[in-house]
Amino acid sequence: MWFDSWSDVIRTVVLGTAAYATLVLILRVSGKRTLSQLNAFDFVVTVALGSTLATILLSTDVSWAQGTAALLLLAALQFVLALCTARWQALRRAVTSSPAVLLRDGRMDAAALRSARLTESEVRQAVRSAGSGDLADIAVVVLETDGRLSVIPRSQWGDGSALSDVSL
Prior knowledge:
By secondary structure, the chain is α+β, with helices and mostly antiparallel strands. It folds into two domains: 6-94; 100-160, 2-Layer Sandwich (CRO Repressor), CATH 3.30.240. Helices cover 55% and strands 11% of the residues. The chain has six helices and four strands; from the N terminus they run H-H-H-H-E-E-H-H-E-E. The chain has helices at residues 6-30, 40-58, 64-87, 89-95, 110-116, 120-129; strands at residues 100-104, 107-108, 138-143, 149-153. The protein has a four-stranded antiparallel β-sheet. The longest helix is centred in the first third of the chain and has 25 residues, at 6-30. It is elongated, with a radius of gyration of 22 Å. The N and C termini lie far apart (59 Å). 13% of the residues are buried. The model has no long low-confidence stretch (mean pLDDT 86).
């Protein structure tokens, strides 16, 4: 159908505005972690927030109060999990992945690439994006817990202390 009634359109606009404002407020109060540096769990929460907002907007069976309760629940669970993973390493390991070295001393680690389901081409692209044209100039490329590739040139290696949590 192209059009049912103006009341449905007005409901969507009014409820959508209220739900959007509520989501922005919840995200602002819940802190930067809710949507930043997405690891797998953070990504799931972000998708769930979007899905919940869409349901509030489009489903006449869901009231603004119910939708707000759902948004608050997701943000609260994310906050509690962030607190717990900051305190307990075992839980952090269960919820987030560990950084992985994909290239070391200019050589690709085929097993690490397979495990991460990445290609040599993607690592070379990250190296180029970091401003290097020679893999031999690169000390390590690390697949971070949020999916980004960190490129550390030999000239920037220093004492390597930034890699203390990475299995080399």
